[in-house]
Amino acid sequence: MSRVIVIGGGAAGLMAGITAARQGATVVVLERMQEPGKKMMITGKGRCNITNSCAVKEFIPNLPGNGKFLFSALQQFSNDALLSFFHEQGLETVTERGGRVFPATGKARDVIAALLSALQKAGGRLVNGAQAVGLVMKPGQVTGVRYRNVENDGRKEGQDFRSSTKGRVKLGPEHTLAADAVIVCTGGASYPGTGSDGNFVPVLENLGLAMEPLLPALAPLQPEEGFTEGLEGLALKNIRATVLADGKAVAEEFGELQFIRGGVAGPVCLTVSRKVARLQHFSRAALELELDLKPALAEDKLDARIMRDFQEFSKSRLSEIVRKLVPQPLVEPVLDSAFLDGAKAVSQVSKKERQNLIYALKHFTIPLTGTRPLAEAIVTAGGVALKEIDPKTMAAKRMAGLYFAGEVMDVDGYTGGFNLQAAFSSGYVAGLNAAKQVLSSK
Ligand SMILES: Cc1cc2nc3c(=O)[nH]c(=O)nc-3n(C[C@H](O)[C@H](O)[C@H](O)COP(=O)(O)OP(=O)(O)OC[C@H]3O[C@@H](n4cnc5c(N)ncnc54)[C@H](O)[C@@H]3O)c2cc1C
Q: Which of the listed residues 350, 372, 394 is the one where a domain comes to its end?
């Protein structure tokens, strides 16, 4: 039979299916949604940042969640190999700022179409609306997949798939499909409306596989209630953000952030969020986000600048001087955190009060409860523990015929195309080795 079943038709699953089918294995990809690649559709704001053009060794530091584990997979199927694959499918690409590679058409849909066309050409079969619900086992070996047809994916008619699946997913009767190898590519648990919601995790846990807790990575941060009220919509550029745990700096980033409803988003927050989520989950530390709103000015320079303003605008109120230093929505919060009255004439402001203002500008602190929920994260940290997986083949170490690829594993990266490359590289390696296994035992 030489059948490889791939569970999940996302980036990793489609690449695994293509690779195994190209080797000559009989491939069936089971996808629970009515279409594959729903998450890929929303990547890169619908443009799909496929990979990054940096040197392969640069991928490791950009995958802070166990990037080293992917060293072999990235060597076996690099960003260049991925781009050659897409170019062969007729998908042109463009490289933008920071080495981010996109399809030249700017449409994620075209990336998915290229993958589906390659799967079809290789003879692989895709079954949509089929949710794997279990694995068929012999002692120490996987011999098939139990699946059920999805009669209703939990969304109301016409509901956007980006919203989370609040309704109940309705499944039909159970079927069994025999397999010589199974590749689990069920993704993480963020943006559950795309189909990746962690539904297969209990199946893997029941097999006795070690799992790391699923936590948000690349997620907005969540301030304590009321602390960022009135700041929604404000974007700050060129600020230094430091995460404090019990007052101790544990992460620092420089760049942009945006205040959103109930959260703080933007590149600097996404980058530090992995650390914040882990502290929130594993520690009881009090968490804070400290913003240096004037990182280009050391305290003495900032003091000199404020003194100059005080002299030049000696008839002004303090709030008018602060407005020259920060955007309007931050004037009150900065004055409040310095315990200052904005209505005070600058001529009346004491040296101590000026020092308090400088401190508030350099250490504007937002208490955090942690990150926004996993459903809002771009990537899921945690998943199948890597000690269970051979990094050279993506095979389960303790169960014959079982492979993993993509975000279902405890690997996660920064924005910039690193997560999709991780999915494609591990998918390629899993597909290759699953096919080798099933074809050699024929
Ligand atoms: C908003 C957003 C933007 C992003 N932008 C980028 C970007 O531009 N570049 C980048 O590199 N990364 C980006 N990412 C991350 C990237 O999308 C993921 O890391 C990547 O899709 C993981 O691929 P995967 O195949 O492992 O999982 P997924 O793409 O999530 O695919 C898993 C598939 O498995 C299916 N499935 C789940 N359970 C079952 C089951 N029991 N039976 C059958 N099928 C099942 C799901 O329906 C899904 O289709 C973004 C993520 C988000 C949320």
A: 372
